[in-house]
Amino acid sequence: MEPNQNTSMNSVPRPKTSAKDFFLNLGAIVALYTFVGNLISLLFTIIDRAYPVINSYNYYGSYSISWPVATLIIVFPIYILLMWLLEKGYTREPEKKSVGIRKWLSYITLFLAGLALAGDLVYVLYYFIDGQELTTGFIMKALSILVVALGVFYYYISDIMVKLNGASRKVWTIVSVVIILASIVWGFSVLGSPRSQQLLKYDMQKVNDLININGLVINYYQLKGTLPKTLSDMAYSNIVDSQSGKPYQYEKTGETTYNLCAEFNKAANDKYNPSTYPYDDFIRVHPAGRYCYGRTINPSQTYPKPYPLTSPTK
Predict the structure, then answer these.
(1) Of 64, 69, 117, 299, whose CB neighbour count within 10 A is largest?
(2) Cβ atoms of residues 40 and 72 within 8 Å
(3) 12-24 pLDDT, tens per residue?
(4) Whose CA is closest to 214, among 231, 232, 233?
(5) pLDDT at residue 87, rounded to an integer
(6) In the β-sheet with 249-252, what is the strand arrangement from edge to edge?
(7) Is 29 helix (H, G, I), strand (E, B) or coil?
(8) Neighbours of 14 (CB within 10 A)
(9) How far apart are CA 280 and CA 277, in angstroms?
(10) In the predicted model, is pLDDT for residue 274 greater than 50?
């Protein structure tokens, strides 16, 4: 009796996924998603600042590249290290390329990159067909998504089809480093150095403080029927400039008029439509240096309901 050919054939054992394989592959994909997402966020922030939409509210404090830049600087090298460890392991054990976790994560990445590409193209086509304005900022954002998603898609489809080698991987790494460094340099050139960003955040805080003080003045007027003579007349008036540690300046200039002053580091961005925020002229352009906002209380205007004073007033 001849032996059963099916049982006599040597079956190739499927490689098992070890804990090391699982966490290296998972870590590499998480790092990829993290740095790609923050790269797009960085590019969008730069584009919003370089090509602002005039009829929308874009105060200078809303632009920050600190988080995406910090994430890219840390996470991208981690991704390169994890991919290097994986490739080193594949060189010793080529069968590890067929582990389930690697295949699943690679195909999920391809699926997400494909969705991003399709969605980006659909969005651009929709804007064109709908007759909406294709602004420079919109086009650059669409190109950013297109280039990044296409790069990820092409890299992983080449990896699955075993078309990548050591030399081509080095080229991909160099190109990625150049793109990330160029984006960071572009970001600092458009939004300023880290010190400039710090000064702008101080200015944003000063504007917010003046808005709060203005609310206190209005509240005082509603309760007392007159403007306070000094800031110390009001409850909760101990708001100071976080940069200098000094109180803000309040000047009563008439029965219903007053000035609120602060020392600003940078000029404010005035590229917005004032009709969007008709009552909030604290967001209007101001120069660098000392600047006073002239305010007027309209006795016939309806303001928010006042809250009771809870500290002694003069």
Answers:
(1) 69
(2) no
(3) 556 677 888 888 8
(4) 231
(5) 87
(6) 249-252, 257-264, 289-296
(7) helix
(8) 10
(9) 6
(10) no
